[in-house]
Amino acid sequence: MRHRRSNPEAVPLKELLGRVLQKAGHSRSAEHQAVFSAWEEIVPETIQERTRPVSYRNGKLIVVVESAPLMNELFSFRQGEFLHLINHYLQKQSVMTTVQSIDFRRK
Question: For the domain 27-106, what is the CATH code?
Answer without folding.
Answer: 3.30.300.20
